[in-house]
Amino acid sequence: MRMFTPYALLAALSMPAVGMAQQPAISPQLDNQRIDQQTPEDNTLRQTQRREAGFRGTESATEQPGAQSEANQELTNYLAAKLYLANQCQIELAEMAANQAKSQDVKNLANDIKQSHQQANQKLVSAMPQLKQVKDLSGNDSDHATRDDAATSQNADTAERNARTPRDRVASNLRDNRVANSNRVAPALSSDTQAPVDGAAQKLLNIERRAIENNHKLTKQMFSDKQGEKFDMCYVGAVIGSHNWMHSELSAIQDVDAPQFMQIVDEADNKVQQHLGTAKQLAKKMQDQQSNEGSTSDSRDSTDSRDSTDSFRN
After folding, report:
1. Which range is the signal sequence, renumbered to this chain (predicted)?
2. pLDDT band, residue 312 (cuts 50/70/90)
3. What is the pTM of this model?
4. Which of 10, 76, 177, 202 lies at a CB distance of 3.0 to 4.6 Å from 258, suitable for a disulfide?
5. CB neighbours (10 Å) of residue 295?
6. CB of 76 closer than 8 Å to CB of 258
7. Residue 154 domain-assigned?
8. Does residue 113 form part of some domain?
């Protein structure tokens, strides 16, 4: 059996330490060079990751205050964009009700809802200019109608232009170009305006948009075959359901460090509760009218039946 001398054991035990000592140390200068070599894309990616972490609530309390501020702003922008879309839905339904409702009370309610939610969106955009990038609800019938009308008008203009002389066509084209330039509207997505949300918040907002659009289409389909009093009752019922939900969501928005936004939320919630109360009163009024009409009809049928019986007996 081979024996190790104390010197051999000491040399063997000291080998890992020597190996570790031989590993090259990273100098502060090299570390600074690596930081300097980081690209703007790397910095943007890290900022996005910090915002997403803060939005999910997974950011450590030891993170810098700037990252927490960005996460709070991201949350505020998301909630504001969500409220903006919900207001648009109420505005479109109110416009339809104002045109198709039979009862003047229902028309008045629709006009009040339209005005209140328009004012709320104006305040949101004024407080948060980034919301200008939030597009309107897609698939609106008014948009399709506008495009169809434009196509019909274009076809008529084309036929008219073909009947003109070349000189007349040149003059007409110049005039149309001047009108088009004067009526041009700025694009919804501006390259020099920062998006309201990104990352995980943007994905959530896209889901919210699709949900609102789906509900909006289903509601409009429900109204499509309703007229007169049936339309009035259907719209008032939709107002009660949607405003109940909006009140629940608005009253749940708390712990958001954005005083101006919270003031808009409080004002919107007050208006929503007012509309909800008016809609409930109208629903009860229409139910009472239907009950009275039903009682009157039953009484009239009963009287006619007795008259017929007496006539038969005589």
Report:
1. 1-21
2. very low
3. 0.58
4. 76
5. 10
6. yes
7. no
8. yes
Per-residue pLDDT reduced to its tens digit, 3-12: 555 444 444 4
Whether residue 303 is contained in a domain is answered as no
Q: Can you tell me the distance from the alpha carbon of 4 to that of 123, in angstroms, rounded to the nearest whole number?
A: 86
3 HSE (CA, 13 A, CB side): 2
Quote the radius of gyration of the chain (alpha carbons, Å): 34
Alpha carbon 244 to its chain's center: 17
Token pair 């030891």 in the structure block, residue? 62
Q: CB count, 10 Å around CB of 85? A: 20
Cα 256 to Cα 240: distance, rounded to the nearest angstrom: 27
The CATH number linked to 249 is: 1.20.1260.10
Rounded mean pLDDT, 146-165: 49
Structure tokens at 98: 């104002």
Q: Is residue 176 part of a domain?
A: no
What is the domain count for the chain? Answer: 1
Segment 85-104, tens digit of pLDDT: 999 999 999 999 999 999 99
Q: Report the alpha-carbon distance of residue 99 to residue 128 in Å, rounded.
A: 32
Give the separation between CA 225 and CA 220, rounded to whole angstroms. Answer: 10
Alpha helices in the chain (DSSP H): 6-22, 28-36, 40-56, 65-100, 104-127, 141-162, 166-182, 200-223, 228-252, 259-313
Distance CA 210, CA 137 (A): 9
Distance between alpha carbon 200 and the CA centroid of its chain, in Å? 16
Side chain identity, residue 7 = Y
